[in-house]
Amino acid sequence: MNHILSLNSPLQSIFWSKTNTLPKQILLIVAGVMLLALSAHISIPLQPVPLTFQSATVVFVGMAYGARLGAFTLTTYLIAGLIGLPVFADTESHLVFGPTAGYLIGFLPAAALSGYLAQKGWARTIIRSFIASCLGASVIFLCGVTVLSQFVGLHQAIAFGLMPFIITEPMKLFTTSLIVPKLWKK
Question: Where in the cell is it found (predicted)?
């Protein structure tokens, strides 16, 4: 039975048969949202953009779930945050409309792009997985710096919204790239 969420992705077939069932997909979405929420709360409180594991987790979810299910998972995550569930890094300040909103906005296209690249074979080796991860994370940072620049100017947005992550982000993405190819070999 095909559902709107169905698409060939590795994580769907690891725990269950390749038959796409709605309960299985809902469970994967809930698990993805919980993983994203957890990654948001593991952070180093830099200002104005905290260092979290969200971007690497967004890319991981996209690459593990595939483009469509990854996008549905990120949409669910963003809706959960919009309605007030404590899934974002800073649940007190309603970041959805603040200086860091661009990073959240970038999550959805980043997961879709990463998932698409994974489905096209970019998740089968560590190197290609790393490149796909970097492309997905670039979408997040492009959106994030663009919105942040509206609040603090472009120079400051780059200085505070990109530069602190130049070393840490590739390390997180490389870790993701070590895991993802194992999922696609199942």
Answer: Cell membrane
